Amino acid sequence: SLYVSCLTASPGEHAYMWAVSPLDSEGSTLDIESVSAAEKGCHKTCSSGGHIEFYAAVHGDSSTVFSISASIVNDTALPLLTPGHDAVGSVSQNSFNYYFLRLPYDASATVLAAENDLVVSLNLLQGYADAYFSSSFATRPVFNSSTRGASSYLFSTFVDSATSYSMLMNKQQDIGHDMIQDICAPTKDNCYLIVGVLGQRVPVTRYSLSLTYKDSTKLVSNGVPIHGRVGQNRNEFYKYMLSQADLDLIISLTPSFGDPDVYISLTQPFPNKKNFTWSQTAFGPDTLTIQSIDILQHGCNPKLSGFCTFYLGVYGFLNSSFSMVVHTNEGFTSPLTLLEQHPQSGSVSTGEYTYYRYIISSTNRLTTSIKLTITPLDDGDQDLYIMFGQLNAAGNPVNASHYEPGRSHYDYKSTNWASSTDQIEVSNGMAHFCRQCVLYVAVYGYKGGHYILQASSQGVLSLVQNQAIGGRVDLKTYVYYSFFNAVQFAQISISLTMVSGDADLYVSTTQLPTEESYVWRSSNFGNDVKVILYDDPQYCWNCEYFVGVYGYKNSTFTLLVSTTSSSVVKLKPNSPQLIAVSALQIKYFTALLASSAADTTVTITEMNSGSADLFVQLFNASSF
Hints:
Blueprint: E1 2-5, E2 18-20, H1 34-39, E3 55-58, E4 87-92, E5 96-102, E6 118-126, E7 128-134, E8 142-144, E9 149-151, E10 155-156, H2 165-168, E11 170-175, H3 177-184, E12 192-200, E13 204-213, E14 218-219, E15 226-230, E16 235-242, E17 249-257, E18 260-265, E19 278-280, E20 286-290, H4 292-297, H5 302-305, E21 308-316, E22 320-328, E23 336-337, E24 344-348, E25 353-361, E26 369-376, E27 381-391, E28 397-398, E29 412-414, E30 422-427, E31 436-447, E32 449-456, E33 460-462, E34 469-473, E35 478-485, E36 490-500, E37 503-508, E38 520-522, E39 528-533, E40 543-551, E41 555-565, E42 568-570, E43 588-590
Parallel strand pairs: 14-16, 23-25, 33-35, 42-43
Antiparallel strand pairs: 1-2, 1-3, 4-13, 5-12, 6-11, 6-13, 7-10, 7-12, 8-9, 15-22, 16-21, 17-20, 17-22, 18-19, 18-21, 24-32, 25-31, 26-30, 26-32, 27-28, 27-29, 27-31, 34-41, 35-40, 36-39, 36-41, 37-38, 37-40
């Protein structure tokens, strides 16, 4: 907890003027307006030089590793982005928070080295935002009320709203050495960027902003999801600081698409398939629990050293997008963060709880329900208990300790039998329904096991590929799902299996589908399967697919989507096909020749860099 005062040099829980507790926000951020400081009497401590002294105290509610920074924010002073340290903040709708980013430019160097490449990551914890970049404060990005967006900037992390919601939660801007050279060369010295974070769509957006050197190690905070992407056969590296002894460490890795694996070490800064101490390489969602005794036996004792650093390597068995949560189970005093429409894998032991917190912040009056689903990944049986709490004017929870849910204390619950999906839906008109509130979630292990949990106030749930999810739909209504397809040449299979009743399947890539408006459908009696091939004219990749399940009757069902990359791609005559191929990888194609009498030319054209070879073999189509 953070306590601040300008009247006492030793602030604490009984003597402070401003405070933020860890249950109020991730990475406690405190904004003190000058008017507020004056109203509280801070001007009385001004010295002859016109200074005001602020005193800050950090109270260890538990053993903690932290960083602390203070910034005076005005037209000439901005918070500095420092490599390896997250800047956590909140921003109001249609407003900017600004940061100062000093670029690693050497005017004496003819060409900058690649190790100067930077990555700015915007990780959204609640709401919507984008980062915009300019080369001076005078030309900083500003909100344009006419276009309802930003103006006056060089580049940004903005992506089209049709992009996968999970992709919108993590946005990255690469600032390569060539870009740095172009920006800095005209000025030669004092080269920097102004980074503006623009809040959108909701009253308050909460985020973390980080600066790292490309291919460096990123810091993970306890219990806060971090989003990432990793290429096939590539690695992304992270680190986590453990400061409490006698607690198990839990790492949960949930793919949006692809198949990432995780490798962990206490001694290897870049763990991989060949150098690691612990690993989890299951297909699909991975959850690994490292017991406290195992941690101690490997030389980590925070009681003696203060903290231990765990190094994590995420390996892409396939091209993958994922979220990762690293945490110790400290009960309701430190609930995990649950993000909008983003599946999160986890585990719970028999008779115990795992707690989450989900902040709902929506100005959309069409928001009519809040959905929460949990799907077992094994033979476990998890139950859901939820309670609704309040947010203050800054969008942070208040009085969190009053809202701990459990078997004897809850607003709503779901306790279905084992191996079935538990779902809670709170609709407009029901008690506790809200658009500006916080939802506390307790996952109870009636029988211990692994699961996937997700929440949505937007009316759409995300599908994890190759992982069935259960659901229900009422007569003549729809329930909606989405998934992201990252494969250029694929066969997409969407399977709707009925448990009871009868429902139909509708699919689109542009909007939520209905009986009247869809791209693909399957409306058989009973089970439905729709297969979409890459040569379908409406097929798209690096895009979102929306799936609608329509209740022909009141129905319960399971829904499964799987994507299989085609091993041989069909070529169309006289139609160029763009493709990327990794080093030492072979990609196969086939083309049917209409006539054996006509000459045929096969051409490969390199588009940017690299070198590729072409091999052709003929087959008789009547026997092949």
